[in-house]
Structure formats: structure tokens, C-alpha cells
Write a structure and sequence with these properties.
This protein is mainly α. The protein has three helices and two strands, in the order ββααα. The chain is globular. The N and C termini lie far apart (about 35 Å). The structure holds zinc ion (ZN).
Amino acid sequence: MSDAGQPHHPVRPRWVCRADGQPWPCPQARAALLRDYDGDLVGLAVHLATMLHDAVRDLYALDPDDAPEPAALWDRFLAWLDRSRRRAAR
Ligand SMILES: [Zn+2]
């Protein structure tokens, strides 16, 4: 799938990227979120926690037998932010 000109936004209820079809937030979406929040990592974490909550609800409603494990969703939505913060602090 081409990502030319498409914003890297989630397509619900599957939570894949509209531009490239990867699990959202894809690397480009993560970079855009970091730019948009401009150092407000607490604000970004709150936003992502809200997205995580919505994704869990959507994915388990869609197919509870095929939904990602909660730990995998945590890593996908929030753990990357902590890794980014630690990289930025070096
Ligand atoms: Zn994307």
C-alpha cells in the first residue's frame, strides 16, 4: 500500500494505519505524534492511553479470539514512548 499523501491515522475498528496498513501507531505516526506534542510527553501519553483504551474495546469487540494480547497492545501504544523519552535523555 502506498503512503503518498495519506495521513498516518488509525482506521477503526481494526486499528491499522490508513496510509500503510501497519498496526497503528506505525513508525511514521509515532514520529508525527512526537512532533505534534512538541515535548509534552505527559500529554502524549494521556492521548495514547485513551487510544489504547479505545483499541482494546474495538479489537475485542471485533474478534475476542484474535485480538492482540494486552501486553502487546501496551507495547504498541505506550511502551515505545518511554523508549523515545530515554533516547532523548541521552
Ligand atoms: Zn502509517
